[in-house]
Amino acid sequence: MRIAIDHRLSVTVPQGTVQAVFHLLLTPPSGPTQTVESWSVEGTGIGNAGRFTDGFGNAAHLVNQLRPEGEITIHVRGEVTTRDTHGVLGRPAGEPVPALYRRLTELTKAPEALYEPFRDSRDNRLSICHALMARVGDVLGLPEEPEAPKQMQADGGQAQVQEAGEVAERPAAADYAHLFIGAARALDIPARYVVGYRLVDGEDGLHAWAEAFDEGLGWIGFDPHMQICPTDRYVRLAIGLDAEAAPTLRTVPVAEVVQVAKVAAA
Amino acid sequence: MGENTPFDEMYNADGSVREPYRALSEWLGEQPEKGLALMQVDAEAIFRKLGITFAVYGSEEGTEKVIPFDVIPRIIAANEWRKLSRGIEQRVKALNAFLYDIYHRQEILKAGRIPEKLILNNAAFCPQMMGLEPARGVYAHIIGVDIVRVGPDEFYVLEDNLRTPSGVSYMLEDREAMMMLAPDLFQRSKVAPVETYPENLRRTLESVAPAGAGRNPVIAVLTPGIYNSAYFEHSFLADQMGAQLCEGQDLFVDGGKVYMRTTTGPERVDVIYRRIDDDYLDPLTFRPDSMLGVPGIFDAYRAGNVTLVNAPGTGIADDKAVYTYVPEIIEFYLGEKALLNNVPTYNCTDVDQRAWVLENIGDLVVKEVHGSGGYGMMVGPTSTKAQHEEFKKKIIARPDNYIVQPTLALSTCPTHINNDVAPRHVDLRPYVLVGDEVRITPGGLTRVALKKGSLVVNSSQGGGTKDTWVLED
Amino acid sequence: MRMLGRTAQNLFWLSRYVERAENMARLLEVGYRMSLTSRREGGASEHLVSMLKAAEMDEAFAERHEVADVDTVAHFMMFDPANPSSVYSCLLAARTNARSVRTAITTDMWESMNGAWLEFSQIKPRDVRGAKLLGLLQWVRQRSHEFRGALLGTILRDDGFAFLQAGNFVERADNTARILDMKYYVLLPRSSLVGGEIDIQQWTLILRAASAHRSYGHVYHDRYKAHNIADFLILRTEMPRSLVYCAHFVRDNLNLLARLYGRREACHEAMDDLLKLVEGTNMDQIFAHGLHEFLNDFIDGNNRVTDTLSASYNFY
C-alpha cells in the first residue's frame, strides 16, 4: 500500500546558543518491504547539510546553525509504497555484519527470567523469537488495555499487582523493543532496534520495534508492543543497537524536541 | 625469562664491554669527577627552561614536573635494530588489517580465531566506525610499541599503543639535550637521526588527507588544552610540523565540513591529529557531556570531509585482552609467524589458570585490563604480602578485569645515580607512523626505572628517560 | 598559516597582563615610598588606599582586610591569588596565555615569561619585607622590560606582533588614565599660584606612578605644575605612557592588521573615535570640558577598542 507521511519536529535550544549541531536520521531506505516514492527533509540549514551513511547503514544528515533563535522546525514529508512480507526484510545491502547486533548495551538489558526458558530450546530461531515477543507482551502488558491492572514482571518473574487508583504510565514501544532485543541477544540472536512509522488511525504514527536475525530468512521484524510482525502498515526509518544509537534527532546542545508524525494511506 | 640476573646491555657476564657500548664506555672513563653530575644539572635547566614539563595527576593544580633525564644514552646496534624494526612493521601492518576487518566483514571472528564476545562487547569497540573507509585503509597512523629486552637476542612486546601514544617529544628533546651536553660523544659514534620525526609525521598526515583536500592539506593538532599532561608535546609537534594547534572551541562544523576560527574567518581543515580520547571527541556522537571536543566532527569524518588521526575505535586493537591474540592476528592477516614475542599472558577467567595465578602471585605481574600509566598494577616480586593478598581478592572478584604475566627480567643500562654509574632497568617505546608507507624512527623513547631494582618505568611512578641511540653500520 | 581567533586573544592578553603586572608593581612602589615619608597621622594608610583605588582594588581589599598597612596592601597587591590584578595573578595569567600560544611566540619570549613565573612562584611572601619588597618590585619591572625586549628583538612583524602590541598599549593607556582620574582634583586649575606641600606630594605620586618624575624635568625645565603634569601624561607624544602616545601606538598596530588582512574593521572606527579625544585638543579645552569627564570618556573609548577588536578578529 501507499503511505503518506508528514512528520514535524520542533526543536528549542537553550537561549544564547552560539552553534547548534543536529544529527538527523530522517531518511527511510528503500528495500524489500518498502519503496520510497518521494521524500523531503526541510528546515533551516538542511540545504547545506553534510550527508553520509552512518555505521548502521542509515542515511544521515549533519546540520548546523549559527546563533539559532527561537524554535527550529524540521519538516519531513514523503510517500512510501509498502509490501507485506510477514515481517521478513532479508539481507539488505550496505549494512554491517549481523553479528554486530549481538553487542550488549545499557538500554537493552533483559532480566534473565525473560530469556532463560529458551536457553536450551531446540526450536528454530523464528519460533523462539515469536515466543520471546509474546513473553515481552506478557511482562510489560498490552497497550490496548491501559486501564486494566497489569502484571509487571520486569524484575524477573515476581508479579506486582498495581495498586488501585495508581495511574499506569504506559511503557513506550521503545521499552518493548529494548526488552525483546536484550533477550534475543542474551540467546546469541542478533537483534536490533528499528525506528519508523506505523499507519494507525488518529494516533501519532512514530513507532519503534525490533528486528532479529535468522540465518535462513535474514532480518525479520517483531513488534512486541503490538504483538505482531510488521505489515504493510509499517515504514522503516532507521536502525541501530538501541534507541540511543538510532534516534530520529540528536542535538548539541541538549534541546527540547517535540515531534509529531501524521501517517495516512495515500 | 624470569631468571634472576637481568641482561646488562653494556657489560658481558665476564665484565667485558659489549660492542655497541665501546665508545660510551671510553667516554665515561674520561669524564672528570662530578662531570656527569654537572651535566645532569645542565640538563635539568635545559628542560625546565624550554617548558618541557608534565602535569602530575592528583597533585595541586599547576604543579608541573620535569621528567628526570639520564645523561647516559642507551645504545642499540644496527643489526639489533633491523631485527626489531622488521618485527614492529609486521605488527603494525597486521593490527591495521585487523582493525579494517573488525569494522567491516569481521572475518577473523567468523573464523573463530578470536572470541566474538571479546570484540563485540568490548568498550573499546566502536560500532559507529562500522563500514567506514578510512584513507588508505589506515586506522592507527601513530603507534607506540612498548618493548622490553630480556637477552642479547630476546625482545618482548609488552603492549601496543594505538590510541594516542605520547612521549615522542621526549624522544626528540632528549636527543636535543644530549647533543648540547655531549657533542664529543656523538662525534665518536654514528648515530641514526631522530629529528626527521616531525617531517615524517607531517608526510604521514598529508598522505591520509580526504579525497577533496587540495595539494597542501591543512593539518591541525587537536589538544584538550594547556592543563593536559601532554600539552607540551601537542604544542611541540604542532610547532615542528608547522600545523595549527587547536582546542575544541577553535573548530566547528559547517555544512558537514570542519573549519577553524581564524582572525580572518573560517578556514577548512583536512586532517586532524587529535590528542583527545574517543569518548571526548564529539559530544554529538560520543559522551554528550564532553566540553573538549567538537560537536559533529565524527559525522564530518563519516561524510569523508576530514580525516581523524588516529581513527576512533583503534583502542580495540591495543586492548589488554586482545593483546594475547596478536600473534594469531599476525598469522591470520599476513600468513607469517610473529617476529616479536608476546609476553605469555594468563587468563584469570579460566578456572585452572586462575588457580595457578593465585598460588604463584608473588612471581607474577598483575595488570588492570583498562589501566595505564603504571596505575592499577602490581609487580609480585617487589610487592608486600599484603599487596599480594589485596590483588588476589581483586582477581577473584573480577577475573575478567585483570591480566597476569610472568615478571620479566627487564634489561639494564648504565645510569647516572648520585654521581656514580649503576645499572637500572629500562624499556623501549619506538614510534611508528603509518600512512602511504610505514616509517619507524630509529630508537624511540627509553624509560628507565631510577629506583634500584624497580621494574616500573612510568614517569608517574618515579621513572626517567634516556636518549636512545641506534648505531648505523 | 592563518591565526586562530583564540591565539590572537591569548597574545593580546598575554601582553596586557605583563603590562598590568608592571603597573601594579610601580603603583605599589609609589604607595610604599609615600607611606614611608608621610608625617601626617594616618597618612601612610591614606596613600596606600589611594593606590588601591587607582588599581581598582580598594573594594576587594576592604572585603579581605580591615587595616590598610604596608604588609596587608603589599601582600594583597603582590601575592594574593584571590586578587585578579595582583602581580601573582597577572604573571600567572600571562604565563597561562603564553603557554596556550607557545607556538605563536618566540623561544626567547617564552623563556622570559616562563622564567619570570617560575622565579616568582618560588618566592615566599613572608620573606618579602622592607628593602626586599622594593627589590622585588624592581625585579617585576625588569622582567616586564625583559619580556618586551625579547618581543621587540625576536618576533616577526606580523599579525601576532600587532595583537601583542595592541594589548600592551591598551592596558598602559587604561592605567595612565586611571592614575590621573584618581587624583584629577589635584590637577585642576586653581587660583593659588603655588602648590602647597600636599599638592607637591600628590603630584610626585602621579608622576612616579607613571615613571615620569625624572623625564618631566627634561621636557618642561620647570618645577611641578598641575597643568604641565596633566599635559605630560595626556597630550605629550614623546611621553611613552601618555594617553596620546598609547593611542597612537594602538592605532599603528590596528593599521598594521588592516594592511595585513586587507580590510578595516569595526575596531578601526572605534580607534578613530578614541583618537578624536586626544588629537587637535589642548589642556585648556580639556579642563573646560571637565578633566574627570574627559578621562572617563577616554577609558570608555579605550574599552570599546578592546571590545570591537575582540569581535572583529574572532576572539572568544
Automatic annotation (TrEMBL), chain B:
Q: Which Gene3D superfamilies match?
A: 3.30.1490.270, 3.40.50.11290
Which part of the chain is the Circularly permuted ATP-grasp type domain?
73-449
The record's annotation in InterPro entries points to:
ATP-dep_Glu-Cys_Ligase-2 (IPR051680), CP_ATPgrasp_2 (IPR025841), UCP005522 (IPR016450)
Per its UniProt entry, which superkingdom is the organism in?
Bacteria
This chain belongs to the protein called: Circularly permuted ATP-grasp type 2 domain-containing protein
Say which species the protein is native to: Devosia riboflavina
Q: What is the lineage of its organism?
A: Bacteria, Pseudomonadati, Pseudomonadota, Alphaproteobacteria, Hyphomicrobiales
